[in-house]
Structure formats: structure tokens, C-alpha cells
TrEMBL record:
Belongs to the Integrator subunit 13 family. Residues 648-680 have a biased composition (Polar residues). It comes from Crassostrea virginica. One of its GO terms (biological process) is cell division. This is Integrator complex subunit 13-like isoform X2. It is found in: Cytoplasm; Nucleus. Keywords: Cell cycle, Cell division, Cytoplasm, Mitosis, Nucleus. The gene is LOC111108451. The keyword Transferase does not apply. Residues 493-514, 551-578, 590-618, 641-688 are annotated as: Disordered. It holds the Pfam family Mat89Bb. Residues 551-572 have a biased composition (Basic and acidic residues). Its main location: cytoplasm.
């Protein structure tokens, strides 16, 4: 028989001189300094030693384990070569360990005992080889001895951490050889070594954390790095939850009278630890979203929030519970935890509900005490096994009354399994896989609810297509029968015959007949397409359906769209429109023309001119692209709004040259100056 690893745990405390140092985290004790009274000098800060922090976190770890597992989870403490307690039940309590720690005393700052950790780890291995009372009751040949060693120490380097691991591995190997020849010892089959490197608050460290890894076939090791004080406490609480499979529940909204003013009350929260089995049903339900939050006690873990329900009686009523587990508060010394504990120990029960923003109240857990111990009870929120079995018409999302029950009966009859005959087993055919393949093909398209299908409600019109299409192979006669069924549906749509439909819209009106046929064709296509890959004959049935299927609205509107696109691309359309407007204007009478001129303010003449201009443009340029047509039209519109600049009209390009006569005068003047200078030069040459 194999007990779990957490059945035996050994703590090894490093009593070296380094743990005589201060943890560098002060204790808040000066109440007078908070009042801000003038003239009062604040007291000097007080700090615990690292040894004190190690002892307090060790005691807290043991308290959680002993509160939840009072008998089958055992812990022993080793300091140097000294073992402080035994595996016997009388020594498995906090008082015995605290008394032994007091006798061992704190470490000395000037001590030179640097090898106490190695001796402690070796002693821890020997302790794990000893039998517990539960192991003594069993046959030692059938016992798999497992355990865990947790060492609180301070290492100087990574090599020292590896030396500790090698020390434990060698010690296990040696003690296993000794245990083979001893009646009072058991060889260790598996051990977990947890090394916790502790430093003062604020100090840096060169040690890195390592996840659990296999050191040897019988030893796994992991390294944790943490600071002393409250950080070490948070690390040990996190480890105890991981080692013993614990979960956290935060009870919110606890009404409690104020300590300062008894006439008023406030709501408090209390965080509890318990085995994780109490949350199994809660996490499987559909209402678990939003229940998991971060720990309100500052722990690096998560907690499930449950709301306090005011108890109506002092008697614990009989509830249908699926699980009951012991609990312990995270902060056992706080006033809210003490009040909740005393309230439950008085014989009263507390119902806990899931906090929900809307909907009915869901009470999922209950806190009650039995025999002086407090338990959390997981109340079944689903249908009880003691009630009548649920009807098939009741689904998960509510009451559903239109399941295809009769069709499902026929489906089960058609897919019944029968035991194989002896001669069939010798053929080498895997009939089980063959049956699974057949069942998958038959259920490939099978709606569960009547309201979700149309073709299976009109079986008399499409038979035998649903029965034939699920076959593995089809012949020509089967394809012909399927085509006949499709043609029959086409005839029904042509005659506009109604289809059976159970889905009704608002005010009792169902969908339109066109929508019904559209849904029917889509469902029929899904049925045939699901089996189209079975054989080429199935593909022929699908092709027949696609040919006979009525085109959708997009397909119907596609010809119109192509015509519109052609009209947009064809420039002759604008030209014909201009001619039509011009002809309509010329056919008007004089009276109609006058009325049109009055209403449009003479716009008809301009429009007529623009139409004539557009007409000439279309005639000269001929057919062009849409951009050129639009650009020419914009130019013609802008040309009618102002008188063109004469210089631009006479110029060759888009730019007109200004002050042309000025340039001519400059050229004439420059020519005269050149001639004068040349004459003077000639005169000088003559003089020389």
C-alpha cells in the first residue's frame, strides 16, 4: 500500500549564525505615535530575528495541517542533530514542538556551526525511514514509503544548494541499504526535497528559484527564494496549499458589531482554508465565472468568494451535501475570524451563497460544527439523485418539448449492436470500427429538435431521399429516386404549396413562404452535401439539387447589377440622356417653355447650351473612359460660369504670358546699348 508524499513531512531548521541577524522588518507596537499627540517621542522600532520568523512560519504551517488533517498527516522537526518530536500521535501537536524549540534555544551570532544543515538533512532522511503508527499496522513488504523534507536555510552560492541535494541523495541511498536489514526501518521509495533560501528583507540574493526536477529515481528537488518576515509567511502558506491540495474560500458580508461602538455594525470578510474537494461541484457548474478573486489576506494565491446568508435557526437542518471538509482560518488571531469561529462552535450554521448580479439565489455551501470541529459542506445545486429521474423534455437550458423522440426510437432500432458470432471473429475484420463508422455516417446530419428542421417534418414529400442518401454506395436506381424527390419539391415550390413549420414569430405569425422554401433548400443541401464525398453517385445527387435549386436574391439581382455596370462603363449612356433631354425641350410648347423659364430662372437656356456643348464633345471625342467624360463635363460646366481670360484664350497652353510689350521694349533698349558700346571700342582701337 502506498501512502501519499504528504503523509510524512520533516522540517529542517538551519541554526547557523546568519539566522541570529535581524529580519529588517519592524513590528508595529507604538500606539501613542498614531494619535499624533504633540510632545511624544516615537519609540524605537523593534525587529524580529530571522530565527523567530522561521519558527513562527513553521508553527503556522503545522497549525494549518493539524487543523485540517488531525490524524493522517504527520510532521516532525529537526534542528541540527536533534529531533524535536516523534511519529507518535501524542507528539503530533504544536505545544510539544514549541516546548522543544524553547529548550533548543536560538542560534548564537558568534557560533561557527556551518555544517548543521548537512547534519540536519542526514537526520531527516533517517527520520523518514522510521515507521509511523499507520505504517506499523500494515505489512511492510507492501508499503511504499514516501515523504517530504522542507529545509529553511541560507546558502552562499548555487554550488552549496547542489551540495545539499547531493547530501540528501547519498543519505537516502545509504539508509535504504541499512533499512533492508532492519525491522524498524523502511527504505524510502520516493522523497521530495524543498529547499527555501531565506534572506533579510531588502537584501539581494544570487540564488535563483528552480521548479521541481528529478535528481535521481527516488529524489525530486526544488528551490524557493524568499525574504524573511511576512514574505516567508506568504511563501509557507502558498506551499502548504500546494502540498496538501488546499483551496481558499473567502466568506464576505459577515455582519459584526464594531469593537469601539457596540450599537453599530459593519461587514467583514474571513478567508478560510480547506481541501479543494469542496469546490469541485462549484467549478463544474455554469455559475463559476467571477467567483475566483485574489486573496484578501495578501497571499499569492486565489480565493473563491461566497456571501454570508443570515441563519434562520440554531439547528443544523439536514442538507443534501456532496462533500464535507474541515476548515481553518488563514488569520486565526484576527477579530473577524475569532467571532466567526465562536459563532459556529455555539451550534449555529451559516449558509453561503454565490454572489450573483441577477437571477435567483444559489446556496452552494454551509458552515457548521460537529464535535467541536468546523466543517464546510458542499450543497448540491443540481438535481438530487433522490428525486425522480428527469424527463427527456427537460434540457439544460430550460424546458424543451419538441425533441424528435419518435425519430430517435427508429434511429436506435436501425443502429442496434449484436454480439459477433464465433466464425466472424476469425475473419480478421474489426467489426467494432465498422459499427462506429456506420453510426457516424447515419448521424452525420440529424437535428435533435423538431423546430430546427423542415425536411424531416415533410418526410412524405421527400421520401426515400433521407433513407437512400445515408447509404455507403448508391446505384443508378437510387440516384433516380433521389432526383424524383428533388423534382417533386421543385413542383411544390412552383405551385406555392405551404411547408410544415413549427417556428412562429411574434403575434403567432410564422416565417413567409419564400423564407420557408429558402430554409428547406439550405437544409436539404446540407443533408446531401454531408454525404457527397461518399461516392460519385452521391455527387450526382448533389449536382441535381444545385441545378434545381431556386437562385437566391443575390443571384437574381446579378443580371441587373451587370446591366447597371455596363451602363456606367458605356459613355454612350450619357450621350443618349443628353439627346433625350434636348428632344424633350424642343417638343415643349411656348407656354411650357415660359413656365419652365420662370421656375428655373432661365436655367433652360443654359441647360440647352450645356446639352449642345456636351453633344459636340461626344461627337468629336467619341467613346472614352468614364474619367475623361466626367472631366470634360466639369470643364464645360465651369466654362459657362465666367468669361474666359483673353490672354489665356490666345495662348497656346494653359499659361498666358503677361506684359508682352514690356519684354519687347527691354529687348530694344538692350540692343541699342550693345551697339553704342561697340562703337566706343572701335574708337579706342583707332587712337591706339
Amino acid at each position: 500500500m502506498s501512502y501519499p508524499v504528504e503523509h510524512k513531512t520533516v522540517f529542517v531548521l538551519d541554526k547557523g549564525p546568519l539566522f541570529a541577524r535581524s529580519c529588517k522588518q519592524s513590528i508595529e507596537y507604538d500606539v501613542m505615535s498614531k494619535t499624533k499627540t504633540p510632545g511624544i517621542i516615537p519609540a524605537a522600532p523593534i525587529m524580529k530575528s530571522m530565527w523567530t520568523c522561521n519558527v513562527e512560519t513553521l508553527i503556522e504551517y503545522m497549525r494549518v495541517v493539524f487543523d485540517i488533517f488531525p490524524a493522517k498527516r504527520m510532521i516532525r522537526v529537526v534542528v541540527g542533530d536533534e529531533v524535536l518530536n516523534e511519529w507518535q500521535q501524542k507528539d503530533q501537536n504544536i505545544q510539544q514542538v514549541m516546548l522543544a524549540l524553547g529548550q533548543a534555544g536560538p542560534p548564537e551570532a558568534k557560533s561557527k556551526e556551518d555544517e548543521n544543515v548537512v547534519r540536519g538533512l542526514t537526520q531527516a532522511v533517517q527520520v523518514l525511514c522510521e515507521l509511523t503508527p499507520l505504517q506499523q499496522e500494515l505489512d511492510r513488504d507492501l508499503i511504499h514509503n514516501k515523504g517530504r523534507i522542507i529545509c529553511l536555510t541560507t546558502a552562499k552560492s548555487e554550488s552549496q544548494m547542489r551540495a545539499f541535494e547531493e547530501c540528501v541523495s547519498d543519505a537516502i541511498l545509504q539508509h535504504n541499504q541499512l533499512a533492508e536489514d532492519s525491522d524498524s526501518m523502511l527504505p524510502i521509495s520516493h522523497c521530495e526535497l524543498v529547499l527555501i533560501h531565506v534572506t533579510p528583507v531588502g537584501d539581494e540574493t544570487k540564488i535563483t528559484e528552480r521548479q521541481s526536477r528529478e535528481i535521481s529515481s527516488y529524489l525530486n528537488g526544488e528551490v524557493h527564494v524568499t525574504q524573511s518576515g511576512k514574505f516567508l509567511y506568504n511563501k509557507l502558506i502558498q506551499l502548504v496549499q500546494a502540498h496538501y491540495g488546499l483551496s481558499s474560500t473567502t466568506v464576505t458580508g459577515i455582519p459584526m458589531k464594531e469593537e469601539q461602538n457596540a450599537s453599530s455594525s459593519a461587514n467583514y470578510d474571513v478567508e478560510l482554508l480547506h481541501p479543494s474537494q469542496a469546490h469541485d461541484d462549484l467549478m463544474k457548474s455554469a455559475h463559476s465565472d467571477g467567483l475566483v478573486i485574489a486573496s484578501k489576506e495578501g497571499l499569492p494565491t486565489e480565493s473563491v468568494t461566497l456571501k454570508w446568508c443570515t441563519p434562520k435557526s440554531n439547528i443544523v437542518e439536514l442538507q443534501y451535501c456532496t462533500c464535507a471538509a474541515r476548515i481553518t482560518p488563514v488569520d486565526v488571531n484576527s477579530r473577524p475570524s475569532s467571532c466567526l469561529t465562536n459563532f459556529l462552535l455555539s451550534g449555529r450554521a451559516v449558509m453561503l451563497e454565490q454572489p450573483r448580479k441577477s437571477g435567483t439565489k444559489v446556496i452552494s455551501h454551509m458552515l457548521a460544527s460537529h464535535g467541536g470541529e468546523i466543517f464546510i459542506h458542499a450543497i448540491n445545486t443540481a438535481r438530487s439523485l433522490l428525486e425522480d429521474p428527469p424527463s427527456i423534455s427537460e434540457g439544460c437550458g430550460g424546458r424543451v418539448t419538441d425533441y424528435r423522440i419518435n425519430d430517435f426510437k427508429e434511429f436506435m432500432k436501425e443502429n442496434r449492436l449484436a454480439p459477433a458470432l464465433p466464425e466472424m471473429m476469425t475473419t480478421g475484420t474489426n467489426y467494432l470500427n465498422r459499427a462506429k463508422t456506420h453510426l457516424e455516417r447515419m448521424s452525420r446530419f440529424w437535428p435533435l429538435v423538431i423546430g430546427e428542421t423542415i425536411i424531416f417534418n415533410m418526410a412524405s414529400h421527400i421520401d426515400p431521399l433521407p433513407t437512400i442518401i445515408v447509404k455507403e454506395k448508391l446505384d443508378d436506381e437510387d440516384v433516380l429516386e433521389c432526383q424524383k424527390a428533388i423534382y417533386h419539391v421543385v413542383g411544390m415550390e412552383t405551385r406555392n404549396e405551404p411547408l410544415p413549420s413549427s417556428s412562429a414569430g411574434p403575434r403567432g405569425k410564422g416565417p413567409k413562404r419564400d423564407e420557408q422554401y429558402k430554409q428547406m433548400w439550405a437544409e436539404l443541401e446540407s443533408l446531401i452535401r454531408a454525404h457527397a464525398d461518399s461516392s460519385p453517385q452521391h455527387q450526382r445527387v448533389l449536382e441535381c439539387l444545385l441545378k434545381c435549386k431556386k437562385p437566391t436574391d443575390d443571384a437574381r439581382s446579378s443580371p441587373k447589377k451587370t446591366k447597371e455596370e455596363k451602363s456606367e462603363k458605356d459613355p454612350s449612356t450619357d450621350q443618349s440622356y443628353a439627346w433625350q433631354e434636348l428632344d424633350r425641350f424642343q417638343k415643349m410648347t411656348e407656354k411650357e417653355k415660359q413656365e419652365m423659364n420662370k421656375s428655373e430662372g432661365g436655367a433652360s437656356s443654359a441647360k440647352k447650351a450645356r446639352l449642345s456643348t456636351d453633344e459636340t464633345q461626344f461627337k468629336t471625342k467619341g467613346a472614352g473612359n468614364l474619367l475623361s467624360l466626367w472631366t470634360d463635363r466639369i470643364k464645360s460646366v465651369h466654362s459657362k460660369r465666367h468669361v474666359e481670360f483673353s490672354g489665356r484664350a490666345q495662348s497656346d497652353g494653359n499659361q498666358a504670358e503677361l506684359y508682352q510689350n514690356l519684354n519687347k521694349q527691354l529687348q530694344e533698349n538692350s540692343g541699342m546699348e550693345v551697339s553704342t558700346s561697340s562703337q566706343k571700342g572701335l574708337g579706342i582701337q583707332k587712337k591706339m
